[in-house]
Specification:
Elements: H1 14-21, H2 28-36, H3 45-54, H4 60-63, H5 68-74, H6 80-98, H7 110-121, E1 128-134, E2 140-148, H8 158-167, E3 172-178, H9 188-203, E4 207-215, E5 218-221
Parallel strand pairs: 3-4
Antiparallel strand pairs: 1-2, 1-3, 4-5
Helix pairs in contact: 2-3, 5-6, 8-9
């Protein structure tokens, strides 16, 4: 029989620890336990939180890829209501990260480009292709999702990219897409797509600054690798 959190010493309870010491002092499992709120006859909320985190390597980024049905099917003690709360909480965290800065970010190198793409591509289970449009000083003008699904020469609308670049008076573009598989190395299609866009960009005196492939917290840069 599990000992419910309400029977623990006060200083050991996640809610009381947060009130007394602040949220930053809690472990990932303790924070998740507060959201789960209560356990079942077998497991406390903290036990369930630890079980959930064990399936994603204690990584909230990986956890955010789960949907409501996956939470319900995988974990005892997580019904639909709790699953909805978890998914909503993780979405709030994603949107907080995505909130627009008051100052336009400068895309100065591959790392800064990765950080801009990360907000949109970090936790997707499918591929998406995006473009950053920057001015002469490298500051971001806008970003645009071009397509989703498998990235091929036919799926990426080069005309759309060029039209947006012209309408935004962009001086350069940065290409980016994700690999949900975890392999950040470019495929043959990735290289061909990049070359096709480069060819079109040259006609407009537009610079293709980089092409970033990202997966989770890792990324590959065509520019850093000397391909562009």
């Amino acid at each position: 029989m599990n000992t419910a959190i309400k029977h623990w010493q006060q200083d050991e309870r996640p809610r009381e620890k947060l009130l007394k010491h602040g949220a930053s002092t809690l472990s990932n499992a303790e924070l998740l336990a507060i959201i789960i709120n209560c356990g079942n006859k077998q497991y406390s909320a903290l036990d369930i939180a630890k079980q959930i985190l064990a399936t994603c390597g204690n990584d909230f980024l990986d956890l955010s890829k789960k949907d409501v049905s996956q939470f319900v099917k995988q974990f005892k003690g997580i019904g639909q209501a709790k699953a909805v709360t978890l998914v909503a909480t993780l979405e709030i965290a994603r949107r907080r990260y995505e909130a627009k800065a008051t100052v336009r970010p400068k895309v100065a190198d591959s790392r800064s480009a990765f950080e801009v793409f990360f907000k949109n591509l970090c936790d997707l289970n499918h591929e998406e292709f995006w473009v950053l449009y920057v001015d002469a000083s490298g500051k971001l003008i806008s970003k645009q999702r071009i397509c989703e699904g498998g990235i091929t020469q036919t799926s990426v609308d080069v005309k759309k990219i060029m039209q947006t670049a012209v309408s935004n008076r962009a001086h350069g573009i940065v290409l980016g897409h994700n690999h949900p598989s975890g392999n950040i190395l470019p495929s043959k299609n990735d290289v061909l797509v990049t070359q096709k866009i480069q060819t079109a960009a040259k006609l407009l005196d537009l610079r293709v600054i980089d092409h970033i492939i990202l997966s989770g917290n890792d990324y590959y840069s065509f520019g850093d690798d000397g391909i562009l």
